[in-house]
Amino acid sequence: MALIAYDGADAAAFQATRHLRDEGLATWRAAIERHFEARAGMRVLDLGCGTGSWARAFRTWWPEVDVVAVEPAAAMRERAVFEPVVPGAADDIPCADAGLDAVWLSTVIHHVPDLPAAAREIRRVLKPGAPVLIRSAFAGRHEGISLFRWFPEAVAVLDRYPSVAGVEAAFATAGFVTAGGGPVPQVTAASLAEFAAGLRRDAHTPLKLISDEAYAAGAARLREAARTVPGPVVDALDLLVLR
């Protein structure tokens, strides 16, 4: 993984705070199903599945589909809410050639150290024409993500992530072309107060990579705003679809 290596504290924080509720998942299901039509007997890979919340959602949404979950970090696998989760990485996927009907990567693309190698491996395991569905925050696209409003120093970390164009170029080396994409709104928390109370620095790569002083200042801004700002926290990450 390129930016951080997940240990037990990171994995526990991720499990505690990064699983979306049903209202947050609903918009993603609709976005995914515009590009992937689940049918009995299909196989879907959740690559870099973390603690397994997306694999669990897929199994709930599409009980007739075989969901395969792969995660390189042992700490994440140990806390997964989905079984089984098997070891593997984007450039070493434990799946047979041309056996998958879709590959899903959620907030993982920035942890992949060699995107062209990952693209070649994903091409190997996918059936011809099957989609790669990449959910991510991308470099240069922080405006829709509330975290960066309170922690502006973290924008510089986000800008170290791959850009949409960079991912497209890397996957083009393996023959992929862009088939769709754009921002998908999600309800991240019912209120800013709930978001502030549940924030865990270890759960967010951009927050781990800013200074302690910048984090403390951002946390104070967030707590102050949470006293008065009404309504749910709605964020927009991007979905990039390649075939």
List strands and helices in order, with pairings:
Layout: H1 8-17, H2 22-33, E1 43-47, H3 53-61, E2 66-70, H4 74-78, E3 85-86, E4 102-106, H5 115-125, E5 132-136, H6 147-150, H7 155-158, H8 164-172, E6 178-189, H9 192-198, H10 205-208, H11 212-226, E7 233-242
Parallel strand pairs: 1-2, 1-4, 2-3, 4-5
Antiparallel strand pairs: 5-7, 6-7
Helix pairs in contact: 5-8, 9-11
Shape: globular
Q: Could you give the order of strands across the largest sheet? A: 3-2-1-4-5-7-6
Largest sheet: 7 strands, mixed
Secondary structural class: alpha/beta
Secondary-structure element pattern, one letter each: HHEHEHEEHEHHHEHHHE
> In which range does the helix fraction lie?
25-40%
Total helical elements = 11
Radius of gyration: 17 Å
Mean pLDDT, all residues:
94
- Please give the number of β-strands: 7
Residue windows where pLDDT falls under 50 for at least 5 positions: none
Describe, in plain words, how this protein is organized in 3D.
There is one protein chain. Helix 5 links the parallel strand 4 and strand 5 (132-136). 37% of the residues lie in helices and 18% in strands. It has eleven helices and seven strands. The protein starts with 7 loop residues before the first helix and ends with a strand. It has helices at 8-17, 22-33, 53-61, 74-78, 115-125, 147-150, 155-158, 164-172, 192-198, 205-208, 212-226; strands at residues 43-47, 66-70, 85-86, 102-106, 132-136, 178-189, 233-242. The chain is of the alpha/beta class and 243 residues long.
